[in-house]
Structure formats: C-alpha cells, structure tokens
Amino acid sequence: MPDPYTPTATASEPMRCRRAIWRYAVFGAILLTLAVTTSIPGIVLLNQELGWYPTPSGIFGIEVYDHPISNSDAIWYTIGTAISLLVSAILCCSIAIRNLYSNRRLSDSTET
Question: Whole-angstrom Cα distance, residue 88 to residue 92?
C-alpha cells in the first residue's frame, strides 16, 4: 500500500483557481451605501453645531430608551460608524481589485 503522505507526481504543482471578484465588489458597494446613509444624521448635526449652512430649524433632545444623548455624542457615534464602514468598503474594493489582477495574471499565464 503506498504512503498517503508522500506527494504524487500530479500533486507536485499547486492548483491555481480564479479568485472571487463580484462578491467583494458588491459587498463593498453595500458598505459604501451604508456608510453614506449612516453619516447623513451626523453631518446634519455637525452643520447645526458649526453653522456652515444656516438652517431655520434644529435638532435637540435626542433620546434612546428614555436616556438623553447630547448632540456631540450623536455626531461622534454616526460619523465614527460611517468612517468604519467606509474603511471596510475600501478594503473590500481593494480585495476585489487585487483578485481581478490575480485572475488576469492567471489567465495570461495559461494562454502562453
């Protein structure tokens, strides 16, 4: 009986497979959309605090489960969440681009 732990001649070269592109690109686009929609309340509150564009109304007295939250805390939470989602979207898109170039190199090497 042959030793199952010794490599055979067919298994001497590693198998090269195409890498996923669409999965990371679509997930990156979803994360980017979530980052933009999450940042909107924080940007509105930041505009209210800094007065970049004057608005006739204001947002005061934010409460979550009967606990008041200050506007500055709401700004930090929403902008912080949006930045983390944006970083995740950039990472997903960079993985998709890296996989795209890897697949192109793989297809170029198989053609020659």
Answer: 6
- pLDDT single digits (tens) 48-101: 888 888 888 888 888 888 888 888 898 999 999 999 999 999 999 999 999 999
3-state SS, residue 51: coil
Distances (CA, A) of 110 to 8, 58, 99: 22, 62, 16
Q: Which helix (H) or strand (E) holds 60?
A: none
Q: How many helices (H) and strands (E) does the chain have?
A: 2, 2
| CB within 8 Å of 22: residues ≥ 6 apart | 96
Q: Are 35 and 41 in contact (CB under 8 A)?
A: no
Q: Burial-class residue 89 by CB neighbours within 10 Å (0-12, 13-18, 19+).
A: buried
Q: What is the pTM of this model?
A: 0.75
